Amino acid sequence: MDEHEITLIDHPEQAAVGVRRIARTDELADVFATLVPRVAGLLEQLGLRPAGPPFARYHDRTGDDLDVEVGFPVDDAVDLPALPATVGNEPGGGVVVAEPLPAVRVVETIHAGPYDGLRATRGRMEAWVAAHDLRLLGVSWESYEAGPESDPDPATWRTRVVLAVSGPAVEPSHPRSPAQQPRDPEGS
């Protein structure tokens, strides 16, 4: 997918583990920087490997307080009783969850560049949704495919922005390619 191209696809369900909390918009960068290594450490404790880049899922984007989950996709569903209930109470803390990224029709695009441009990218996507007579379902996430951990130059950062939609019988632009499907640990 090219930068700025918006596509409509059927997203397959993907198991995930994360930490969910309420955060102000002005503290998201700090919360994310704290939670990504904590969730990665939790996965390691459980003997799991991330099946893709870290994500931020937004359960509620109204107002300045956001209900956000920071996590990783994983290959297999995780039994919640095996997980600790919480991870700290400080700004990087929250409730541990094992809720899959849903099987749902979505619009997605790749945002290239610094994170402060994500709001404009989301606005462009919302306009595209309206122009195609679709309706936002309130489920969205961002997958951080390349960021400051891989290169300090913001021009190289890539974020996949995903918005769940419904509407008239619009055919997806394309299904996910095999490379985008969840990995099969057995290689089949």
UniProtKB/TrEMBL annotation:
Domain AraC effector-binding: 4-166
Region named Disordered: 166-188
Recorded superkingdom: Bacteria
SUPFAM superfamilies recorded: Probable bacterial effector-binding domain
Name the record gives this protein: Effector-binding domain-containing protein
Native source species: Isoptericola jiangsuensis
